[in-house]
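Entry, Tuesday afternoon. Goal for today is a structural model of the target with zinc ion bound, before we commit to ordering more compound. Inputs were pasted exactly as handed over by J.K., no edits. I checked the ligand SMILES twice against the vendor sheet because last time a stereocentre got dropped in transcription.
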Amino acid sequence: MQTRIEREKQTIQDMIALYCRKHHNSSSLCPECLDLLKYAHQRLNKCPYQNGKTTCAKCLVHCYHPQRRNKIKIIMRSSGPRMLFYHPVAAIRYLFDKRRREPITPLNKK
Ligand SMILES: [Zn+2]
């Protein structure tokens, strides 16, 4: 069983890959998208909510740098609907996770 964070990492990777293929004509991730993916994974690693988290779009903690945040929003808007077609299981899980309104109490609160 994948953890919530692992799942989110996979979803973001799929979304960026779809976007890159469509907009940058790249079969693998172009350097720009690879950089954004690394950044997104890094943010998830540091997410204080971990497995209790809602989706990043709804999270109360805006941990992304505004510039990155803007970019990821554009990618999600573009790849979101396409996810249902290419990765239906991930997309449905994502919709389900999104229904969780509040993040659950942080697990590793310091
Ligand atoms: Zn790209």
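Residues 66-86 form the longest helix (21 residues).
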